[in-house]
Design brief:
Distance between the termini of chain B: 34 Å
Strand content of chain A: 25-35%
Structural class of chain B: mainly alpha
Mean pLDDT of chain A: 85
Mean pLDDT of chain B: 89
Order of helices and strands of chain A: EHHEEHHHHEEEEEHEEHH
Largest interface: A-B, 35 and 40 residues
Number of helices of chain B: 4
Structural class of chain A: alpha+beta
Radius of gyration of chain B: 14 Å
Number of domains of chain A: 2
Number of strands of chain B: 1
Shape of chain A: elongated
Oligomer: heterodimer
Distance between the termini of chain A: 60 Å
Helix content of chain A: 25-40%
Number of helices of chain A: 9
Low-confidence stretches of chain B: none
Shape of chain B: globular
Order of helices and strands of chain B: HHEHH
Largest sheet of chain A: 5 strands, antiparallel
Strand order of the largest sheet of chain A: 2-3-1-4-5
Radius of gyration of chain A: 27 Å
């Protein structure tokens, strides 16, 4: 019983017209494809045993020798007949229920990720790198994952629309602690908060927020800040004893359609 | 009801309600939503959130900001309805922020 993955490339990339596999052109990408498969397999194992097995990492090790072996190169542009199997079967402990269907589950998930990433839908960063490593000039790709003639998953891809994630996206941070200092004009407006645990947070602030911080300097405070590549900026500063924020759906709907009325009108045109 | 990892911010029912509200207030052609399209937008936005989170194991980090931005982009560009997609995109993004007590600090022109 062998799981097989047929890969087919068409286009003008090096070697395709001659029905040859150029290692220089395709080597890095194929290496990345194996890496993506192993990463999926190890994640599947970790998900299965995490919290129940003390050494999850070692348990997942055999999944890292799942391999894609080229069995044959077919004509008609470039077709690669490959076999998806454990490189070291003994180490993989194939009798364990977890391992028996691991190649099938990992292979099917790999093809799902290929399908999604090719459409620009974020799914698997290793698969995204695989597409990025493929040589230029590939116009069509197809992947057929099958077992003894039974197709498990098939994916046909035309032009690939890769999504690139911008680096350094902003994210929110909360903290609870004491105000230990502020900065203001002519220097930088900032509020310095020492959390109960962790290091001092220096939060860039508006002048009104600095004024508010001075009033709260003897109370425990709760802060919400946004971290960007340029630094940290205070968004909200409240006394820790103030009631926690409670979301009100009705008020939110009213606020959205009142505050953004003009914007929504423009968008409707 | 099937709980998705983004359900505490927004779900398909809420997006459809916001879309309908946008049509009732500002007019437009009513059409049924392409539900797989909306599910795909939500899933893609959530994936972006997961992949963009800083690699720090820190309880002070709050997720949702990237999800909000990507949801705005995906709903606006995927055209899950024949009319009103941009309004639904903006109001959905504002809804996600509102669940965390936040809004956008910008003028109408900047928005």
């Amino acid at each position: 019983m062998a799981y097989e993955l047929d890969i087919h490339y068409e286009g003008t990339a090096p070697g395709l017209a001659e029905h040859r596999l150029s290692l220089g052109a395709f080597g890095p990408a194929l290496n990345q494809l194996v890496f993506a498969l192993r990463r999926i397999a190890t994640q599947l194992v970790k998900n299965a045993v995490e919290g129940e097995h003390p050494k999850t990492g070692r348990f997942a090790d055999p999944a890292r020798n799942l391999d894609i072996e080229i069995v044959k190169i077919n004509g008609n542009a470039l077709g690669l007949a490959t076999r998806v199997a454990f490189h070291d079967v003994a180490q993989a402990q194939p009798d364990l229920p977890l391992w028996a269907d691991l190649p099938e589950r990992a292979g099917a998930e790999l093809l799902d990720a290929l399908d999604r990433e090719s459409k620009g839908q974020l799914s698997n960063s290793a698969v995204r790198k695989y597409f990025a490593e493929l040589p230029e000039g590939i116009t069509k790709q197809s992947y057929n994952f099958h077992l003894n003639g039974r197709s498990i998953r098939k994916v046909d891809i035309g032009s690939v629309q890769l999504t690139t994630l911008p680096v350094g996206l902003a994210y929110l941070r909360k903290a609870e602690g004491d105000i230990v200092g502020v900065g203001f004009d002519p220097g930088r407006n900032e509020v310095r908060v020492k959390p109960e645990s962790g290091s001092l947070a220096v939060l860039g602030s508006a002048s009104e927020q600095v004024d508010g911080a001075l009033e709260m300097r003897h109370s425990k405070v709760r802060t919400l800040s946004v971290q960007t590549v340029k630094g940290v900026r205070l968004i909200s500063l409240r006394r820790a004893s103030d009631p926690a924020f409670k979301f009100d759906p009705e008020a939110a709907t009213k606020q959205i359609f009142t505050r953004w009325d003009n914007v929504l009108k423009k968008l409707a045109k | 009801m099937n709980q998705q990892p983004w359900s505490h911010w927004i779900d398909i029912d809420r997006i459809q309600a916001l879309h309908l509200e946008g049509l009732e207030r500002y007019a437009g052609l009513r059409s049924a939503a392409d539900l797989p399209c909306l599910e795909s937008a939500l899933g893609a936005a959530y994936n972006a959130e997961i992949y963009s989170m800083p690699e720090v194991d820190d309880e002070t980090v709050i997720s949702g900001l990237t999800f909000c931005g990507y949801l705005l982009f995906y709903i606006a560009t995927k055209q899950c309805w024949s009319d009103g997609s941009k309004r639904a995109a903006w109001s959905s993004a504002m809804w996600v922020l509102a669940t965390q007590g936040l809004t956008v600090d910008a003028s109408d022109e900047e928005a």
